[in-house]
């Protein structure tokens, strides 16, 4: 662990961390298709797993770290050595993780895959993100179904639906998202359409 001793892994103020994450990760690798800069901050502002990586008393990067999980890794200019940062974070994660289970990196940037492989990680799958207009379909719904524009009075039902749905996801880090997280996600949606003056007509 001598290599790790050159660095410090420090707990971050989550709101400040989320701001740096939005600027230095999501502008380059935005898997969330963000609604706004503020929504990117709000997503992580109340979490307890945000960390800085410090070298020579300077921040060089950040990550979201839990036992057996690393995600949201980003560097801070002028430091850009992703290989080095990933190695440091992996060594640290190993010290807090259950040795009988693997360390999972659910959102690794494809350009960094070789760095993870060099540290013993195994690539299990590659997810693709696609954003495009859908085709138009002429659908006749059964009488028990109807289309509704979501309103704030539906927020609790929406959060419950998201929580139940994502709880059955095959990916552990998604399946363990809290009910409070889904409530926050619904709030971000309604705050966004209000700020953008999106009509429900």
From TrEMBL:
InterPro entries according to UniProt: Acyl_CoA_acyltransferase
Source superkingdom: Bacteria
Protein name per Swiss-Prot or TrEMBL: GNAT family N-acetyltransferase
Organism field: Clostridium rhizosphaerae
């Amino acid at each position: 662990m001598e290599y790790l001793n050159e660095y410090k892994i420090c707990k971050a103020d989550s709101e400040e961390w989320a701001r740096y994450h939005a600027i230095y990760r999501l502008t380059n690798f935005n898997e969330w298709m963000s609604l706004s800069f503020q929504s990117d901050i709000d997503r992580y502002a109340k979490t307890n797993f945000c960390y800085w990586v410090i070298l020579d008393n300077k921040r060089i990067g950040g990550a979201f770290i839990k036992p057996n999980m690393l995600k949201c890794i980003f560097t801070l200019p002028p430091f850009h050595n992703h290989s080095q940062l990933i190695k440091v974070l992996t060594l640290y994660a190993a010290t807090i993780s259950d040795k009988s289970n693997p360390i999972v990196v659910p959102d690794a940037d494809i350009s960094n895959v070789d760095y993870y492989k060099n540290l013993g990680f195994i690539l299990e799958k590659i997810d693709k993100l696609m954003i495009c207009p859908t085709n138009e379909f002429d659908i006749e719904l059964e009488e028990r179904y109807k289309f509704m524009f979501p309103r704030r009075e539906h927020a609790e039902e929406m959060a419950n639906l998201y929580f139940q749905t994502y709880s059955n996801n095959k990916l552990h880090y998604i399946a363990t998202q809290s009910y409070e997280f889904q409530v926050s996600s619904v709030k971000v949606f309604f705050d966004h359409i209000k700020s953008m003056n999106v009509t429900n007509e």
